[in-house]
Amino acid sequence: MRIGLWTLAGCGMMLAASAASAAVTQDSFLLRNTGDLVDLCSAPQTDPLYTAAVNFCHGFGVGVVRTLQDQDAASRSGRLFCFPNPAPTRNEAVARFVQWANADPSRLQMSAEDGIATYLSQQYPCPRRR
């Protein structure tokens, strides 16, 4: 499960090549919505704020995933998501999240936390118990 945690936190390096995004601005760090997180996680290496953006993406992703995992552990109603074994790599997970978010413009308007939670629950559903 820890591998999955780091997987989501993700590395934005692969995203620079795989996702086109607007230039990162200081306002992107306010994380008004999932679109801002997508901009940070997919900042091109040529962006002056690249290092800060990718580091913010990593830290925010780790924080959200850990919080969701802690909530799942305390919940009696079941888990929100279950990472596969083996879990996708960091680069794969972030690239998939960005791709998922960009596939439906309404997702970009969700809060960043809800965007991650919705992505995880849709992409990594837990097996149903019999």
UniProtKB/TrEMBL annotation:
Residues 34-126 form the Rap1a immunity protein domain. It holds the Pfam family Rap1a. The lineage of its organism: Bacteria, Pseudomonadati, Pseudomonadota, Alphaproteobacteria, Acetobacterales. InterPro entries: Rap1a. It comes from the Bacteria. This is Rap1a immunity protein domain-containing protein. Residues 1-22 form the signal peptide. Keywords: Signal.
